[in-house]
Design a protein that fits this description.
binds iron/sulfur cluster; alpha/beta
Length: 258
């Protein structure tokens, strides 16, 4: 029930998503704490881009925005740190060099398209939502909170993706629903907007900003899911959900022995 390195019992979006993706993977990662033998390159890449964009937002918050080259330097440092942690497994013909070049182009586009009139008012905002008796709290961090010149506040989450999202994917994105609960717990009111910023890792990178909303019905449904996941964890219901995602799973060996 803990993300690694933390002691206080809690549930995070990442845990919920892992359990829904594959309950056995959840057990290997969060309960057995099996050290993965490799990091899949798309995971390391997305994480390094996320750290680079986070550093840019932090510099905006401090009033001294980083240049595109400086953001790319943050990417390279983050990548290096991931590759020191454990070996990176490449796929789809990618290599460290090809991903470094791709990251540079993507971050240049991200930097060029950032609207300096938008004020960054929060980054990595931690939240904790009380889920009631016999449930650990739901915790997380909101990537970025922006304020437009007209005063509109938007909670946004950055993703890297190889193609555009379908409308339904945006409307049903559970991470944003989780963030909307977090935003409520932090005191953001019903006027707060939600957005998914998707940085496309295509030949010609683009930033697609998908605006969306979340209703109480969306949040109630998500909470129902969280409670069901928690029941599954408590009752130790862990089974392999073999599908296309197994190809990137670092727990293939213990899975075979299950
Ligand atoms: S290999 Fe597939 S079924 Fe096995 S733990 Fe990983 S994701 Fe689950």
């Amino acid at each position: 029930m803990n993300d690694q390195g933390q002691e206080k019992p809690h549930l995070s979006y990442s845990q919920i998503n892992t359990y829904c993706t594959c309950p056995l993977k959840y057990r290997f990662h969060y309960i057995d704490r099996i050290e993965p033998p490799f990091t899949a390159a798309p995971l390391a890449f997305g994480s390094a881009i996320h750290e680079a964009v986070g550093a840019f937002y932090q510099s905006c918050l401090e009033g001294d925005p980083l240049s595109a080259d400086q953001i790319h330097d943050v990417y390279r440092q983050a990548w290096e740190s991931h590759s020191k942690e454990r070996p990176i497994r490449f796929s789809n013909g990618d290599s460290e060099d090809s991903l470094t070049t791709k990251a540079k182009r993507m971050l240049e586009v991200f930097h060029a398209e950032f609207d300096p009139a938008v004020q960054i008012v929060g980054i990595e905002e931690p939240f904790e939502v009380d889920l009631g008796k016999r449930m650990p709290p739901l915790v997380g961090w909101i990537d970025v909170v922006e304020q437009a010149p007209d005063g509109t506040v938007t909670v946004a989450d950055l993703k890297t993706a190889s193609k555009r999202y379908a409308d339904q994917t945006v409307h049903s994105n559970l991470q944003l629903t989780c963030y909307s609960l977090g935003a409520q717990s932090l005191g953001f009111n019903g006027d707060t907007r939600f957005r998914l910023d998707v940085l496309l890792k295509t030949q010609n990178p683009e930033v697609i900003r998908y605006e969306t909303t979340r209703t109480n019905a969306d949040r109630d449904r998500f909470l129902k899911l969280v409670k069901s996941v928690w029941q599954g964890i408590r009752k130790e219901i862990f089974f392999p959900k073999s599908d296309w995602q197994c190809g990137q799973c670092p727990f293939a060996d213990p899975c075979k022995e299950w």
